[in-house]
Specification:
With about 160 residues, the protein is α+β, with helices and mostly antiparallel strands. The protein is elongated.
Length: about 160
């Protein structure tokens, strides 16, 4: 179906109603914006890491692979480690896997992570966050060294 532009002129007795302005509506509403899962994952990962009591993101295996990837030139740190997002047109759901510091109240850290992640994602994307599921995969003990530091210590000796 093809539309032809017509002038907005008063009805000249043709029986047709006058047409509205060309394009119509607010320019900000013309078109569609899509947000990739990875974008939401990055925002959520950064927001979760900002919470006091979160030591790291991801399971031990993903952190090990991440440590190797971080050492590869151009690999960079992965802020999406431990974050999975499902993004729809207007809503998103998130799954986070975290490691908490020993001594913190896990329920308080989980609540703070949810609040921070929801606020950041909704503010930056405009998507409604319908759920944030948190899996605590480990507790960082004070006398434990980070997995990522173990290789450096062995290499230096």
């Amino acid at each position: 179906m093809t539309e032809t532009p017509q002038r907005n002129s008063p009805d000249s007795g043709s029986g047709k109603p006058p047409l509205s302005k060309r394009g119509g509506g607010d320019p900000g509403t013309r078109g569609r914006t899509t947000i990739a899962d990875g974008v939401v994952e990055k925002i959520a990962g950064m927001a979760a890491r900002d919470v006091v009591g979160v030591h790291a993101m991801g399971s031990g295996l993903s952190r090990t692979f991440g440590a190797v990837r971080d050492r590869v030139p151009g690999g960079g740190k992965s802020v999406t480690r431990g974050v999975k997002a499902e993004v729809g047109e207007v809503q998103t759901a998130l799954d986070l896997e975290i490691v908490v510091d020993y001594g913190v109240a896990i329920s308080d850290v989980a609540r703070d992570v949810r609040e921070n992640v929801i606020a950041a994602v909704e503010r930056m994307t405009g998507l409604e966050v319908v759920e944030v599921n948190i899996a605590v995969s480990d507790v960082k003990l004070p006398d434990e060294e980070d997995d990522e530091d173990d290789d450096d210590q062995q290499r230096l000796q």
